Amino acid sequence: MIKIPIISKWIEKRSTSTLSSPSQWFVDWANGGSPSLSGVNVNETTALNNTAVFACTRIISETVASLPFITYKRLKTGGKERAPNHPLYTLLHEEANENMTSYTFWETLMAHAVTWGNAFAWIEWDNFGRAKALWPLLPNQTTVERKMDGSIWYHTTIPRTGQTVALPAWRVLHVPGLGFDGLVGYSVIRMQREAVGLAIATEKYGASFFGNGARPGGVLEHPNNLSEDAQTRLRTSWNEMHQGLEKQHRVAILEEGLTYKQIGLPPEDSQFLETRKFQVTEIARMFRVPPHMVGDLERATFSNIEHQSIEFVVHTIRPWLIRIEQEVKRKLLSTSQDKSFFAEFLVDGLLRGDAKTRNEALQIQRQNGIINADEWREIENMNPQEGGQGKKYLVNSAMIAVDQIGLTKPPEGGGDRNGQNGNKGNSDGTNGDQGN
């Protein structure tokens, strides 16, 4: 069990966290989130109870995690090749640690980054100075501190051991989101808690509306004064008869001049459905996710969904990929012997488009000698052609270099500039073979 003095010291360390202040952090932790004007407490955990927030977090996390993260070696002649023998190849592409596949690891880190604004991972080094495992750190238990000498330290709790430690920057992989101090990112949930709070509030209102028998906000009026006990019994019996979805539309029997008056606004008057629809769009805007990807197809058409999906990769996923690639290079590939290595996500699969457009683009590359048949087949997940025939590069024979125009020589064996045979008759009328 954690002792009180340790808790007090931990709260003091929150002064360098992404939260506004230590006291605010403690209040949020105790109350389940920062209060919003809608009356709902919102934090990174409670926000996931909303379907739109959960969907946006899930689609970004799963998309990044599903992309192959490949370690390459730069060739001296130019270009690159995969480096499967490099220790980092398995770590990034297959297994981040003994308990997690690379997919689970990057999905977890991206979920932290999308909601909390920061993702942290403890780098476990071997005796040779090589990274042998990456372990996610909880963002709500990790703080960043910049010392007076400029060094960066991370105060965190190691999930495996429960030990609170201070780690230097070279032992932590840190992927921050948008932030203005260049050190930590902002929590999207906390920055936009009013929008999230309104979405949660409307969802709770809808659940309560049906849970209360679709008659919320009503009063029972009696011509005489009722004692406190009589009011309690009347309220209890009314709720028992009419509260709950399965008790809707029961006939109410009112005695002794008792009348019922509804004072709550019906959903159509309070624009309940319109508000819920708009909050889905609002939350999708927060995470920069196309609405159709979270189930809002109101403005989606067959002609714009493909382009929206490509824009999602370019404007939403790509910035996160660059953040990760640069942090991996800075922390895991910074030694002199690793200068020729780098890690990069493959996003070609997400930008393929429909079959017709994709094959037209590949055909242009094939006709111009950019790819061969085997490379085309590999893109389409097919095996190479037998006999090595697919390794040949083809090019349109009519295309020549600009500086060679007018300098081409006629083919061997004769022929004039028009390509006609050079056979001419001799002066004595016999056929000659001058063009042979």
Outline of this structure?
The protein has helices at residues 4-13, 22-31, 51-66, 87-93, 102-116, 188-191, 193-211, 228-242, 272-287, 305-332, 355-367, 373-379, and strands at residues 34-35, 41-42, 69-74, 80-82, 95-97, 100-101, 118-125, 131-137, 143-146, 152-157, 164-168, 172-176, 218-221, 259-262, 341-345. The protein has 436 residues and is α+β, with helices and mostly antiparallel strands.
Architecture overview:
This protein is of the alpha+beta class. It has three domains: 1-211 and 272-350, no CATH class; 218-263; 352-404, no CATH class. Helix content is 37%, strand content 15%. The chain contains twelve helices and 15 strands. It has helices at residues 4-13, 22-31, 51-66, 87-93, 102-116, 188-191, 193-211, 228-242, 272-287, 305-332, 355-367, 373-379, and strands at residues 34-35, 41-42, 69-74, 80-82, 95-97, 100-101, 118-125, 131-137, 143-146, 152-157, 164-168, 172-176, 218-221, 259-262, 341-345. Strands 4-3-15 form a three-stranded antiparallel sheet. A three-stranded antiparallel sheet has the order 8-7-12. Helix 3 (51-66) crosses helix 5, helix 3 runs parallel beside helix 9 (272-287) and helix 7 runs antiparallel to helix 9. It is extended.
